[in-house]
Amino acid sequence: xxxxxxxxxxxxxxxxxxxxxxxxxxxxxxxxxxxxxxxxxxxxxxxxxxxxxxxxxxxxxxxxxxxxxxxxxxxxxxxxxxxxxxxxxxxxxxxxxxxxxxxxxxxxxxxxxxxxxxxxxxxxxxxxxxxxxxxxxxxxxxxxxxxxxxxxxxxxxxxxxxxxxxxxxxxxxxxxxxxxxxxxxxxxxxxxxxxxxxxxxxxxxxx
Length: 207
Ligand SMILES: [Zn+2]
Prior knowledge:
alpha/beta; Collagenase (Catalytic Domain); 7-stranded mixed sheet; 3 helices; 7 strands; 19% helix; globular; binds zinc ion
């Protein structure tokens, strides 16, 4: 089956300076009318068109860094911290580094538009990802030690999209953030557990 790139499903974290950052809705129509097992889970902008309870019981995610990945410690720190916090959640998420990983992460200068992006390539509608590219924008995720906390938050947010989460309007890494946290929160964890049902974890959220 041929893979196709969902250009319309390239997620971007917008940047707002009234708070450290607030995730933006990108072309997403959200309904308030039906039960949502987790706000960060939604089937409107869910990567690869997965539907409720997509049936992915394991989340083994091999990744490799972009060949152009800069040798600056803070980028490694940001990405490692984001991966570590996701791996540490009560979910089946298991990112691991391998040179042959199908999922690429990196950094590049994308100007003043977005803080980070995720672009999946999917097998058909409702299929699995054949690959994913995740990039942090050096324009914002930057060149001083003070940005590491922020950059880690951007990375954590983009990894949420990487996992298939959409945007939440709760206090969550996929939602509203006053800059006081930079890692997944309850709603994010619930979103993953809804999307990837696993007997070892249960989504206890619901609105
Ligand atoms: Zn986003």
